């Protein structure tokens, strides 16, 4: 029930609100648009709705100008995002996605920073076949994008303890129970027949309602001491509390988010704040009620201020907590103590529980492809053919070949060696802790390169790293092509946000464990200035750091930038 003392921001609804309202629960005219034979694209209204179905219409920006000269429409293609709670997929599912990428996509897979698979380059005429083959492999793309709860993240490392398996089950439950209830996805892509009268029934979306949420919503579960999913970047962050080797519940943090808009100080990254503790069986109720608060009081007029973090800031943290407890009918307990050590992955073979083994591979930029002599995609395909465990996508775009039986370990090790696959240990620790979004050429929002450029930049930064004896020193570095934050740039000890082609805003000072945001250091600089700045900074760090001091802590202690724990001073 809406609290009459609380109000959503005033103002006319954004155009996206109109599209959702008129969509008949996310149907729109998608069926007709996907059958239209003249254009490879679809109308903008339908493209907005496509996001709820797990896909974005994009075009190849590398050839955009040339096609304009030839008076051709853009090289339209779809990105399809496959939802995998906790990033877990079976070998058979891996092989299906590999096959789809070859048949219908651009021959690659992208491991996203939310533990989902992305396929790029799918043309309109192949979309329905792609969706149906994904469904036949017991996967889907529902709510992988759009103004709903997205893929629920959790720690992917099964070697830590049996607690991980339990946490994964809760992540899976949350992801499924928070899905939209409309049958539009099944009707459009899977040929399910409409249930007479169902689109008009309000109860078709008992939680979301006919307008869904004002913006996307993200949930992640962390298992201390690892903060690999960057729990404070989530709209709802759940922190597992373990006592006597038993999961007793979760601390609840709310209001995180990494996105912002250049030049708009009303927008900012922000860390989620812990408001209490609940038991495992209560997390669905807690998550649902928080989502309904955002549904009722989020900003539906200005999408740049529509994320839950702005709702929390506008209403006040205590007000939101009180509203949550009113809707629950009970109060959260006091938060329990916890501690994070890091937010990165641990590479190589690790012995797990019950006689299993797990191998974490470094996947630069999360891109699964064959790169010349480096046959990453082919090697993983051959491993999937014999693997009897599972694959786990990390939040840092890497891959865990998990639950390898002892009798399969030798065989998989031989394939790793045959195809030259790497656990990344011979790379610098800086590169192993790198993260980048897709950016150009497919993302329509990108202002600069990220995935294609960061490895090139790192080649040059590594020379500075080696000169200063920092090869094995872990420093997180992240790059995004725009300020939307898909690679969680604000939590990189060194962060870059694309400003224009070849130009980036440079940020410093985030905490290695993900508990402090970075702050702007230099604005609109290119490669020469980036390298010049890092040459000075890394030299000082090598000579003047305290024992065990991380780079982000060093730049704060030295006054190079000021500390920031929320978004209030993220900008100049």
Task: Explain this structure.
It is a single chain. The chain is an alpha+beta fold. Strands 1-2-5-4-13 form a five-stranded antiparallel beta sheet. Strands 3-16-17-12-11 form a five-stranded antiparallel beta sheet. Strands 6-7-8-9-10 form a five-stranded mixed beta sheet. The two termini are 40 Å apart. About 2% of the residues have low confidence.
Q: Count the strands?
A: 22
Strand numbers in spatial order across the main sheet: 1-2-5-4-13
Helix content: 25-40%
Give start-end ranges of low-pLDDT stretches. Answer: 194-203
% residues in beta strands: 15-25%
The helix count comes to: 17
User: What class would the helix/strand composition place it in?
Assistant: alpha+beta
Q: For the CA atoms, what is the radius of gyration?
A: 23 Å
Distance between the termini: 40 Å
Shape: globular
Largest sheet: 5 strands, antiparallel
Oligomeric state of shown chains: single chain
Give the overall average pLDDT: 94
């Amino acid at each position: 029930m809406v609290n009459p003392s609380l109000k959503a921001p005033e103002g006319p609804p954004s155009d996206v609100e109109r599209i959702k309202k008129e969509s008949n629960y996310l149907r729109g005219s998608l069926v007709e648009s996907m059958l239209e034979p003249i254009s490879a694209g679809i109308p903008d209204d339908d493209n907005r709705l496509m996001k709820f179905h797990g896909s974005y219409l994009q075009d190849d920006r590398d050839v955009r100008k040339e096609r304009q000269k030839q008076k051709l429409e853009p090289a339209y293609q779809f990105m399809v995002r496959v939802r995998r709670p906790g990033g877990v997929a079976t070998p058979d599912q891996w092989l299906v996605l590999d096959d789809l990428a070859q048949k219908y996509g651009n021959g690659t897979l992208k491991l996203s920073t939310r533990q989902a698979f992305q396929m790029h380059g799918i043309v309109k005429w192949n979309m329905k076949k792609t969706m149906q083959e994904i469904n036949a492999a017991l996967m889907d793309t529902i709510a992988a994008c759009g103004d709903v709860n997205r893929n629920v993240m959790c720690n992917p490392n099964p070697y830590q303890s049996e607690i991980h398996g339990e946490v994964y089950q809760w992540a899976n439950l949350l992801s499924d129970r928070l899905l939209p209830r409309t049958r539009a996805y099944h009707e459009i892509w899977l040929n399910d027949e409409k249930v007479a009268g169902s689109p008009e029934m309000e109860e078709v979306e008992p939680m979301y309602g006919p307008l869904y949420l004002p913006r996307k919503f993200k949930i992640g579960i962390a298992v201390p001491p690892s903060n690999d999913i960057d729990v404070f970047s989530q709209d709802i962050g759940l922190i597992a509390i373990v006592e006597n080797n038993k999961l007793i519940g979760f601390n609840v943090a709310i209001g995180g988010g990494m996105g912002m808009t250049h030049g708009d100080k009303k927008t900012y990254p922000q860390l989620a704040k812990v408001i209490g503790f609940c038991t495992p069986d209560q997390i669905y109720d807690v998550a649902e009620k928080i989502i309904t608060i955002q549904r009722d009081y989020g900003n539906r007029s200005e999408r740049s201020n529509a994320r839950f973090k702005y709702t929390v800031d506008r209403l006040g943290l205590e007000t939101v907590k009180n509203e949550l407890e009113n809707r629950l009918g009970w109060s959260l307990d006091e938060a329990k103590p916890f501690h994070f050590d890091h937010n990165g992955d641990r590479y190589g073979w690790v012995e797990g529980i019950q006689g299993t083994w797990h191998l974490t591979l470094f996947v630069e930029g999360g891109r699964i492809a064959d790169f010349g002599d480096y046959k990453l995609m082919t090697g993983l395909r051959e491993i999937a053919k014999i693997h009897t465990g599972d694959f786990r996508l990390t939040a840092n775009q890497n891959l865990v070949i998990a639950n390898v039986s002892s009798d399969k370990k030798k065989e998989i090790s031989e394939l790793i060696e045959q195809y030259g696959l790497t656990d990344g240990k011979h790379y610098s620790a800086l590169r192993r802790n790198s993260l980048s979004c897709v950016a150009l050429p497919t993302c329509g929002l990108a202002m600069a390169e990220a995935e294609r450029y960061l490895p090139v930049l790192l080649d040059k930064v590594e020379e500075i790293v080696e000169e200063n004896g920092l090869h094995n020193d872990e420093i997180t570095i992240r790059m995004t092509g725009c300020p939307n934050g898909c690679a969680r740039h604000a939590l990189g000890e060194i962060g870059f946000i694309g400003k224009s082609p070849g130009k980036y805003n440079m940020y410093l000072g985030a905490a290695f464990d993900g508990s402090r945001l970075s702050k702007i250091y230099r604005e609109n600089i290119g490669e020469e200035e980036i390298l010049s700045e890092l040459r000075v900074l890394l030299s000082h760090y090598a000579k003047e750091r305290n024992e065990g001091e991380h780079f982000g802590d060093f730049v704060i202690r030295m006054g190079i930038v000021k500390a920031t724990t929320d978004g209030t001073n993220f900008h100049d």
